[in-house]
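Q: Could you predict the 3D structure of Serine aminopeptidase S33 domain-containing protein?
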Amino acid sequence: MDYLSRMECPAAESPYELLLRAALLTPISHYLLGISLIFIVFMYYFLEIHFFQDLITGFRGQPVTLTFNPSSQLFTTSDGGTIGLDWVINEDVKKREVEVNDAVQIDDRTPIIIIIPGLASASDSAYVKHLAFKMGKRGWNVVVSNHRGLGGVPITSDCFYNAASTEDIRSVIDHIHRQYPETPLFAVGTSIGANILVKYLGEDGINVPIIGAAAICSPWDSLVCDRFLRRRLVQRLYNKALTAGLKDYAKLHEAVFSRLINWEGVQKARYCRDFDDAVTRALANCETVDAYYRKCTSCKYVGSVTIPLLCISSLDDPICTSEAIPWDECRLNKNVVLATTQHGGHLPFFEGLTAKSIWWVRAVDEFFTTLKSSPTTHQKQEVQKPVSSTNPQETSTDQVPFEKVSEDGMVSALNHHKAEDVIHTGSSVEEKDDVKIDTKRSQDSTRSSKHDMNDIVGPVKKWLNQISHQNRK
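A: Sure. Here are the predicted structure tokens for Serine aminopeptidase S33 domain-containing protein:
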């Protein structure tokens, strides 16, 4: 009887009541923890947001402590504009103050790295300080070429910087080359700065005084990136953050901006496209925003780059989408090495549990060191473009790559098609009707130039491949 009564008692209560009672006995902290984990996983994997990862690595990382006094120089452009050049000497680092516009005394044998920061970034930005400090410690002389109106320098003309104009960086590089004609020059561009750098290298071709360059997280195609930043909620959040930086830049120089453009358009701008429509497009003399973005696009200049160029992009970049990467153009130009990683975001690429270092800074240092020690450092190679029926203005974003990208994301710009290589030296010889060309010697020279470039690009590609595998573990 007792057994039967015990069996009948639970039946008196509804199963829903039992579940509710069990739920009430569970601590609230367990519910909060579970909801938080589900929310984080959903936001990270389904919405492609990198806020949590950046937040965690930001708390783990340590700020760069400046143990040197950067030397400041003011460079005046032909239109009366002023550009701030902040130098970091490799000795670090001499603890001395240098007055503005004083000539910076450096060793002519020590190479100089010219840094071109990203949108609204300057020499006081965290990643720029990290890059300058690390390169200075590695034995390089570094100069940060701040954009007009940034780096604590006022705007002194009616001309502003924009992603479509390469005149400022061209003037700065020529100025530094004139000051230190015997010093090897290298350049690093980040984000918009990378876009400007690639565009400059393609425009000037063999005439650039640069030995090697690196483009980090370049947008490549501004039209594609603009559509990407307006596509989803998360991208629109990043878009608003970028717009806030642009509006702060405009407010810093409100007296000049309000005289040249409609200031009300700046105040109402919600996204980068709104700001570019109200400000940048007008100051760049473009009829529409899309026309300005087409003018900014750098991917169509990749094929004209004649110096070793390392391009690093992250496939999960939340700002400069991987859809804009010019895969085909990089493959066809043997001077270009394209390295992509599965993770890294937009510029962070943190390394280690403590996130004290940035991976791409180490990669750039290794790439430049290899170029510096190469006997073919001062030779520029022009790529003979293959005959194609496609429109030369088309970018690779409109076409499917003709080769599959390897699992590690590494793409080498080695050209497997047979083409003639031309080495440009200080003198040129014109072919006359009465002059016979030594075909054998010409072929030997061409074969030697190919071998020399492979000696440079090959080890760098192999090293980047190994680092990429380690970075993904």
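Q: Anything worth pointing out?
A: The CA atoms of residues 381 and 423 lie 5 Å apart.
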